[in-house]
Design brief:
383 residues; alpha/beta; Glucose Oxidase, domain 1; TIM Barrel; 2 domains; eight-stranded mixed beta sheet; seven-stranded parallel beta sheet; 17 strands
Length: 383
């Protein structure tokens, strides 16, 4: 698991503040470009004019540096050209907000939410964190225009209301060729006026991912710990599709949802056949999942036949479907056409048993949290 945030030793502080900066290895950038860059150096080079210097060794002559100087350890060996960081030269805090080499990057917009999902991987918090939205505006301005995909997530981003719409417009202007995947519980779109404002963005490649955890309102509401959530969510999806917006339905499989997985897929196929994609997702052992583990955990191997039936239902109706967050050795072969390597590369790990597996390159692996806390007892190498 990559370490995306931490505290760096500050060897020199000239700004005493927090700022975004783009990593470069090029010590010979034009002077006009250096004020927004952090120079990553292995040994003494000319660091003059750079906003910050990221030094791997103590041998750097700090006195020659005009900007802030941070010392980085081997934990950050992944940093490379084009990555975007938030640095604070007062505290030494560092957060990697964008990785140029990643398959996709996520931008956290808020930790506030109007749900309290049993398996929430980002447990909701109440303090005002609107600074995250302000940071998102700034970050999107400097992300490279050839970026393939961005995920906007929370918390619940629609709690920002019109400010979220402004962010989507901003994203469309700055990154017109980047696919945007917005994660939301969908309830705000029961308000058709808000749904129309969202649709009016007319982003060329925007999809919203909305969870539907059961065909039974009581089960869905129990999972998200909010009464009336199912009805609001379905109304939101209907409004979005009425406005020709792309919608993905997401379903996390665990002990509370697996018993009605087939019925839920039937419900989706019969009532929401017009959605654009269905994602059947394995459980991530983090956030609220850990204290609720006994309530949620079921070995994926135990429900592999149910998963096959669910996928077959969606396929038979022509509804695009994918299986995320599972290991190849825990699913049946008939699921493979729908199987995807989906776990973010920075938190993907494998067990020792996977070392000799001939299909490891095709397998999505495990969440690092799953490796540490709970994973299938049936993981084995294909030889």
């Amino acid at each position: 698991m990559l370490k995306l945030h931490g505290t760096l030793p500050v060897l020199k502080s000239t700004t005493g503040g927090s700022y975004l900066v783009t990593v470069t290895r090029n010590a010979f950038l034009a002077a006009s470009s250096r004020s927004t860059r952090a120079l990553l150096i292995e040994a003494n080079q000319n660091p003059n004019g750079y906003k910050a210097v990221l030094a791997r060794q103590n041998s750097i002559d700090v006195g020659k540096c005009q900007g802030d100087v941070f010392q980085i350890s081997a934990d950050y060996n992944y940093l490379d050209e084009g990555d975007i960081l938030r640095l604070d030269s007062a505290s030494g805090a560092m957060r990697c907000l964008y990785r140029r080499s990643a398959r996709s990057n996520s931008i956290l917009l808020t930790e506030q939410c109007n749900h309290y999902c049993l398996m929430c991987s980002q447990p909701p918090k109440t303090p005002d964190d609107s600074w995250l939205l302000r940071e998102a505006f700034e970050l999107i301005t400097v992300i490279p225009t050839d970026t393939n995909e961005l995920i906007l997530t929370g918390g619940e981003p629609t709690l920002y209301g019109l400010r979220l719409v402004e962010l989507l417009n901003h994203t469309k202007r700055c990154l017109p060729n980047t696919a945007i995947h917005l994660l939301s519980n969908g309830r705000a779109f029961k308000d058709f006026t808000f749904a129309k404002l969202y649709a009016a963005v007319e982003h060329p490649d925007l999809m919203i991912g909305i969870p539907v955890y059961a065909d039974d309102p009581a089960t869905h509401d129990y999972v998200v710990q909010s009464r009336g959530a199912f009805d609001d969510t379905i109304r939101g999806i209907l409004n979005l599709k009425r406005l020709h917006q792309r919608v993905e339905v997401r379903l996390v499989i665990h002990k509370q949802t697996v018993s009605r997985l087939r019925q839920t897929c039937e419900f989706l196929a019969r009532n929401l056949l017009f959605v654009d994609h269905v994602a059947l997702m394995g459980l991530e052992i983090t956030g609220f999942t850990r204290p609720n583990l006994e309530l949620l955990w079921i070995d994926p191997y135990e429900y592999k036949d149910t998963l096959s039936e669910a996928v077959a239902i969606l396929n038979s109706y022509g509804l695009p479907a994918s299986v995320y967050n599972h290991q190849l050795c825990t699913v049946n072969p008939d699921v493979l056409p729908n199987y995807r390597k989906s776990i973010s590369d920075w938190k993907t790990e494998y067990l020792d048993e996977c070392t000799a597996c001939t299909r490891r390159d095709d397998c999505g692996g495990l969440f690092s949290s799953g490796k540490a806390y709970r994973h299938s007892d049936h993981i084995k190498a294909f030889l």
